[in-house]
Amino acid sequence: MPDKRENIRIGVFICHCGSNIAGYLDVEELEAFAKTLPNVAFVVRNLYTCSEGGINEIKNAIDEQNLNRVVVASCTPRTHEPLFRSSCAEAGLNPYLFEMVNIRDQCSWVHMREREKGTSKAKDLIRMGVAKAALLEPQEPIISEVHAARALVIGGGIAGMTASIALGDRGYEVVLVEKEERLGGMLNRLNMLGPTMTDAGDMVKEKIETITDHPNITVFTRATVTDVDGFIGNYEVDIETKSGNEKVDIGVIIVATGGRLFVPEGLYGYDGRRVITQLEVEEVLGRGLDPAVKNIVMIQCVGSRNEERPYCARICCQTAVKNAILITEQNPDAKVSILYRDMQMYGVENEEMFRDSKVKGVRFIKYDPARPPRVEEGKVSVFHSLLGREMDLLADLVVLSTPVVPQEDADVTSKILTVPVDENGFFLEGHVKLRPLDFATDGVFLCGSARFPANIRETVAQGLGAASRASIPLSKGFVVVEPIISVLADEDACRGCGLCVALCPYSALEVRDTEKGRKVHVIDVSCKGCGVCAATCYQHALSINSFTDQQINAQIAAFLN
Amino acid sequence: MCTGRLDPAIVAGAFRQGLDGLLTVGCYFGDCHYITGNVQAKAKIDITRKVLKHAGLNEERLAFRQCSSGEASVFVDLVSQFDEKIHSLGPLGGAGDRVKAPEIFKKLETAEAALTSEKIRWVIGKRTPFLETGNIYGEIFTEHEFNRAVEMIIVEETQVQEILGGLKEGARSVKDLAKRLDIPPERVFRYITALQRKNLVALQGVNGRSPVFQLTA
């Protein structure tokens, strides 16, 4: 805690940003104004505060003017806060005694034609920043050790196997948990993998051999994860195996539980013999297609892109086209028709495969979901929506392209790990673009069809990516967390009611029994500082470092003043 | 830091200090950097708006809108429209509001206390689970049912806070409080009994035949 009696001395640095700020706001007026604010001991304007000259000016002023708070009024904290913070630290001032005021992105740039109003708004912003700065408290970064440099991989399909091998090769211990008797997952049931027509059987065999011989990988098959306790670097995991229960210390977790194929019970006369799924046709092709099967009709989007399952599962089109090609190769006089709604053939190789299938005589017929095809004995009737007429297609075999759907136990996994699933039931990554292989919760990663239907190539890429992401905390051996997080500022006030615990999006809060009764505890490495808990606590027991109620209220008061 | 950090009591406090309008712009649902912070923010703002409206403030002074950081023109429109709206309403406690200044500032003080209170905070926190996964009995509420319950709680909690506010000025009898605050005496009595149970209010003595209550120290 800072000494409450300390004399607050704030330095305000007003940046011209060349002409980005000075060209549109009256910076001289801002300087004169800043000098009138309470606790301000020093004000200076810089052409570029972020230049070496500007940075030196901050450092010198901290020393010579005895500053204990620094306010920079300039561009945006998004790009420059880290720089100014570290400049303060270099001059011996705790970096969290720094406050940034955004007078460029949110002021001079949006009020380029309103010099007076813009200047007046900049004054408000500076007054608010200075008011908050006076109440800032020093913070120390939070460092948490990774106690177990060991990864848990849940799911032994191609995603989980790839991630396990990648981590094992890097020298980390891996515990791979697979619920089936055999590793390989869906890959065990596939025939040839498009677009390169790689033998799935060879691939799975090779992966299983690598894993079985790997000194760093421990495999539990017919096993499930039943409980996960702890946080990044410090998990305690319970695994139920066929030969008893195991308890392992784990540092990071990769969710590679995959998906399963939707079984179209009751749709298009599905019977598993004459009307089968793409997965079943893979097995048929693996054994060799009966030469008597001449007419094959495939129906796309069976059980997907409807009200119940609104998403496009993406990989069924390429699977259908690939299997159509394999069928024509096995039975050169076979006629394959693909009834589709829209063809999803992304990527250069898939496009090529698509063209190739047309050369090989595969017929594509667009149907209208409002008038779906009808499967009858020996034929399929369909309304050709481009030609605008009904047509009958002979069919010795009907293949239904059904979507990959989430695993039935995805919700159980989601609860055990406290990670979210999306509206379709697939696991939800931390950020679509910025953290595609991480969960929002640190220490837990995801890859493969557990996230969304992915083909083998994508799954392998994601497995490698997730392993790479997961290896960061393992190799560093510690985790550093920004201290702008929730803290139990007033332990006596906390009643341990748990309202905040239920609302925390990161499971960073828990109620613990203490000498003073039930109290909330912040797991600081898990907290992201969103502030939901502090804004919820009716006892005001929780606070957010650098965004306390007092600091926010001081800003509001300064604004309304 | 997220819109979910927005504390309803801080919002009410800002209006009490003379704020004329507050526009909260959060990310789209599903797009929140903090997963569900914006959902919490909307729940907080929606109920805060109801409490402030009950206090006599024009509800349009507090808005929750959504926009992504890539949608500059959407943001400009949101801000411009809101700015126009607030200008048309004029300063707080004027023609635009049901309760006028300076009375409204007194009411906002009560609203601020109500928004700090345990009960309303629980209601805000439980909004999403009640509407989506249900209460501990598995009962899921419709938005309509939930809002009706909220309206009732707001009326009650505001009255409770008015009573506590009244007692802050000194010990009073139920009859006296009922008259001053324009709340039926039987309700005042009910609240006082509940507050006694919570150890917030205690019997000070008896004046004639009326018991007189005071805040516990």
List keywords for this structure.
heterodimer; A: 561 residues; alpha/beta; Rossmann fold; FAD/NAD(P)-binding domain; 4 domains; 5-stranded parallel sheet; 30% helix; 25% strand; elongated; B: 217 residues; mainly alpha; Arc Repressor Mutant, subunit A; 2 domains; two-stranded parallel sheet; 8 helices; globular
Q: Give the low-pLDDT segments of chain B.
A: none
Terminal-residue CA separation of chain A: 28 Å
- Tally the structural domains of chain B: 2
How many individual domains of chain A? 4
Q: Strand-residue fraction of chain A?
A: 25-35%
Oligomer: heterodimer
CATH class of the largest domain in chain A: Alpha Beta
Mean pLDDT of chain B: 93
- Give the spatial strand order of the biggest sheet of chain A: 10-7-6-14-25
Category by helix and strand content of chain A: alpha/beta
> How many helices of chain B?
8
Strand order of the largest sheet of chain B: 3-5-4
Q: For the residues shown, what is the average pLDDT of chain A?
A: 95
Strand content of chain B: 5-15%
List low-confidence stretches of chain A. none
